[in-house]
Design a protein that fits this description.
The chain is of the alpha/beta class and about 425 residues long. It is built from 14 helices and 12 strands. It is globular. Helix 1 packs antiparallel against helix 9 (about 245-275) and helix 9 packs across helix 13 (about 390-405). It has helices at about 15-30, 40-55, 65-75, 95-100, 120, 145-155, 205-215, 225-230, 245-275, 315-325, 355-360, 370-375, 390-405, 410, and strands at about 55-60, 80-85, 105, 130-135, 155-160, 170, 175, 180-185, 200, 280-285, 300-305, 380-385. It has a domain at about 15-250: Aspartate Aminotransferase, domain 2 (3-Layer(aba) Sandwich), CATH 3.40.640. The strands form 3 sheets. Strands 1-9-8-5-4-2-3 form a 7-stranded mixed β-sheet, with helices on both faces. Strands 10-11-12 form a 3-stranded antiparallel β-sheet, with no helix packed on it.
Length: about 425
């Protein structure tokens, strides 16, 4: 069966045409008024994005990586500090710690949520641990109740990387509002994408002002804390991190429509999974329906794969069969960061030893075999279609193909060469 609907309709159109037209007008206004590097629209966007989350302060950035660096500096991360981060995430969730003289201790993930495993956090805590980085991976909210309990017990700060989970809820409360500070990538591929941009959110005035003093020198008039005022005029981090106002203009438009767009996405993708709920071999990567939690905009939606239920059929062969029927599904996700040379052997700053050791003053490396779920997850996940509209006939056509492949899995076994040695990617489509 060949998919015909993929070239028709607008179910795969991320931004509705009426919203796109309004965005174009907003960008042209910024251009014609030559306000690309001004701050008025950026501050308006920051305020409205923070209000959407019920938080006091928002600070716009040129990208999500810079927002995470600002969050780290905001909570006081510095030389010798350790942060705990899940190994399955995009590198920007943790690598900026090197810039501040700190290092990363990796924790394992849960096989079903793909988020940091609370049960693995506590064993990683030392007297050098300063913060826990929580990533709401692929839109799935992490278990914030358990994580915050651990953080409070050990007096640790929590940074939420909500770059995959714009608008997602954890037990009825928006992600990005649990920790001391949160950071969002807003690059164009994200569910809430406004160009190459990011934003930091917090209720803590000191975190907000420290983030300003680090990389927003034109906003030092907002700094009132005495020890920070002594250095106003120059960015303490030597960084220039302001958001481009074309992105801010797009963001102000998107904020008006995103909740409605998000509901449509949620309805469409939940319908897809509801129709596949009883199929062997695959599981939905989504919260329990009665939990009050949601996937938000479902950034880069994934499915969970259970090879043993399909006679050992590899996820690679499964995806190849879907591709042959017109569905662009691929196996894997972000690779386990703890296995990359940057976190093992590389001397990035010419210090005569691997940077991860020089920053930590001890060997915090996690060699292969230490984080088994992170190391084996590539064979247990695959991408699903990114439906943006609830058009039942189109979704049902895709479901038909999934069911056909699953029901005929025995025919695929003879040609199954297994999974390649390497699946997933360090960046893949999970970019910031």
């Amino acid at each position: 069966m060949e998919i015909k609907t993929i070239t028709k309709g607008d179910i795969f159109e991320k931004i509705p045409s009426k919203v796109m037209n309004e965005m174009e007008d907003a960008v042209l206004t910024v251009l014609r008024e030559w306000k690309m590097s001004k701050l008025d629209l950026t501050k308006e966007f920051e305020r409205k994005f923070a209000d959407w989350h019920g938080l006091k302060y928002g600070l716009g950035y040129n990208n999500g990586t810079a927002a995470i660096l600002g969050a780290m500096y905001g909570i006081g991360i510095g030389p010798g500090d350790e942060i705990i981060c899940p190994s399955i995430t995009y590198w920007a969730s943790c690598l900026p710690a090197y810039t501040l003289g700190a290092t990363v201790v990796f924790a394992d993930i849960e096989p079903d949520t793909l988020c940091i495993d609370p049960n693995d956090i506590e064993s990683k805590i030392t007297d050098k641990t300063k913060a826990i980085i929580v990533v709401h991976y692929s839109g799935m909210p992490a278990k914030m109740d358990e994580i915050m309990k651990i953080a409070n017990k050990h007096n640790l700060k929590v940074i939420e990387d909500a770059s995959h989970a714009h608008g997602a809820l954890y037990k009825g409360k928006m992600v990005g509002t649990f920790g001391e500070v949160s950071a969002f990538s807003l690059m164009s591929a994200k569910s809430f994408g406004i160009g190459e941009a990011g934003i930091l959110l917090t209720d803590d005035r000191e975190i907000y002002e420290r983030a300003i003093i680090f990389g927003h020198y034109l906003r030092h008039d907002e700094v009132h804390i005495e020890y920070l005022k002594k250095g106003i005029g120059l960015p303490w981090g030597g960084c220039k991190q302001r958001m481009h106002q074309m992105s801010a203009a797009i963001g102000l438009v998107l904020l008006k429509y995103y909740p409605e767009m998000m509901q449509e996405i949620d309805k469409a993708r939940n319908y897809f999974w509801d129709l596949l709920e009883d199929c062997p071999g695959i599981r939905a990567h989504r919260p329990d329906k009665n939990s009050g939690s949601t996937n938000g905009g479902w950034y880069n939606p994934l499915g969970l794969y259970r090879s043993e239920e399909l006679g050992g059929l590899s996820v690679t062969r499964f995806c190849e069969a879907l591709q042959a029927k017109g569905i662009p599904s691929t196996a894997g996700c972000n690779k386990a960061l703890h296995l990359h040379p940057v976190f093992n052997t590389l001397d990035i700053y010419n210090e005569g030893k691997p940077t991860i050791i020089s920053r930590a003053k001890r060997d915090v490396r996690k060699l292969r075999g230490n984080l088994p779920v992170s190391e084996g997850i590539q064979e247990k996940v695959f991408t699903i279609p990114s439906f943006y509209k609830y058009e039942k006939p189109v979704i049902e056509e895709y479901v038909y193909v999934f069911k056909k492949v699953i029901n005929n899995y025995k025919e695929l076994l003879p040609g199954d060469k297994g999974n390649p040695k390497e699946l997933g990617g360090w960046s893949s489509s999970f970019r910031r």
